[in-house]
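Batch job 17 of 40 flagged for manual review because the log was empty.
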Amino acid sequence: MKVKDKNFVSYLSEEEIQKATKRLASQLNKDYKETKPLFIAILNGSFMFASDLFKEIKLECEISFIKLSSYDEMSSTGNVLELIGLNENVFHRDVVIIEDIVDTGNTMKNVLEQFKDRGVKSVEVVSLLIKPEALANDVEVKYVGFEIPNKFVVGYGLDYDGFGRNTKAIYQLKS
């Protein structure tokens, strides 16, 4: 698959993604069965994962969205920009952050600090992908779909400079 000027090869199929999503939702349903969590999806990248995950959540819960940006083309800028903020009161709430990918951890560290400063009861992260080799921050991601190598991926909401999000599978940059 070609996105802009880069070639990508198949990496995770739609079936693998859906299986992992159902596994994560099942665990969240068990862990939060006595609560009414607020799920917060980080846009833009997590929109497909958040939608599929939320369809499998069988809890009394809410979902909201925040829009952050920390990427320029294919690399992290190291700066996290909050483009659209949260309207819900999170004080003394159980919050579950939905993320597409955690690589350096810069965005997630920033997000977790902000929520802890707002007095949440608890905050956990569910991420479809994590790149352990790329982590530059000590962030805990309790719910992980896949651990992947430190290679660039697109598809299923993940993008390359805004393009390539609109696939049911995930593709890796061709070496």
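Reviewer: the log was empty due to a logging misconfiguration, but the result itself is present. The first helix runs from residue 14 to 31. Unflagging and moving on to job 18.
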